[in-house]
Design brief:
Elements: H1 2-27, H2 50-58, H3 62-91, H4 95-107, H5 113-126, H6 133-157, H7 161-169, H8 174-185, H9 187-203, H10 206-211, H11 218-227, H12 231-251, H13 258-261
Helix pairs in contact: 1-12, 2-12, 3-6, 3-9, 3-11, 6-9, 11-12
Length: about 270
């Protein structure tokens, strides 16, 4: 049984790491062994940094990278600012009311982004939010905010209400209870909600390509380079594009657990 588990784990790992391997192969191999070859070898034949040097010196990378970073951080912060009180309020409602509300929120994720992006872009032009980081962040909240609220509702529901009652009996104000007891206890869920929101925004494309076409985010910039035939620049950008996600995931990996995402914290 254990061997089957290990084999399954190995297949699962290879399945997800193989695209990253191909990305590294194309990024650090001469073009004659990759995009210019009819039958490119599946292993490294020669190592080079020329692809990266050429891409970062000849094409626009820094501005899309900074914009993606700003938008993703805004999305994470807004998701917490709204998701925490919304999740806390839902956790204190009866289940027969809270769960239909959560389902209603999650239904918004079922609507194709392009359906709502076009009318929103027309309104954002009037409000001077079109092609701005805050405008794009607000639209991406349509997806991330229901998820953050769902995570926070589950997190707060796992905190026994007796802790809140005891804090009130001991004279703690509402603000003191939230700052000193509620938030520290719910910290794993809060970090998980921020991380999920940040990672979604970092990789989001549909809203970004419609609402931020003049000053694109990095995923859109990669797409533009692919459509213009600058495959090596797109590969170099994609390689750098994955680094913040890997760093953030490694640093906060202890919070990316199913029990945190479903609110199974221990109070």
């Amino acid at each position: 049984m254990s061997k089957i588990v290990y084999v399954g784990f190995a297949i699962f790992t290879i399945y997800f790491l193989f695209p990253l391997y191909i990305l590294l192969l194309v990024a650090f191999s001469p073009a004659k062994y990759t995009i210019e070859s009819l039958y490119p070898p599946p292993i490294f034949k020669q190592f080079t940094l020329n692809n990266l040097i050429f891409a970062f010196t000849q094409y626009n990378f820094l501005q899309p990278f900074i914009k993606s970073l700003i938008v993703a951080t805004l999305v994470g912060i807004i998701a917490l600012l709204v998701g925490i009180p919304a999740g806390y309020g839902l956790s204190r409602l009866p289940a027969k009311i809270a769960y239909p509300v959560l389902v209603l929120l999650l239904i918004t994720n079922m609507v194709p982004g392009i359906v709502v992006a076009i009318p929103i872009s027309a309104e954002f032009i009037k409000l001077h939010l079109f092609d701005t980081p805050i405008g794009l962040a607000l639209v991406q909240e349509l997806i991330t905010l229901p998820l953050a609220t769902f995570i926070m509702q589950g997190t707060f529901s796992a905190i026994p209400k007796e802790i809140e009652y005891q804090a009130r009996i001991d004279g703690a104000s509402a603000l003191s209870y939230i700052a000193n007891i509620l938030v520290p206890t719910a910290l794993p869920g809060i970090i998980a909600a921020f991380l999920i929101s940040w990672m979604f925004s970092w990789d989001e494309f549909t809203y970004a390509v419609i609402l931020s076409p003049i000053h694109p985010t990095l995923p859109v910039e990669i797409y533009i380079n692919i459509t213009r035939g600058n495959e090596l620049a797109a590969v170099a950008f994609s390689l750098v594009f994955t680094i913040p996600v890997i760093i953030l995931t490694v640093i906060l990996q202890k919070y990316l657990k199913g029990e945190y995402l479903t609110g199974g914290i221990k109070a």
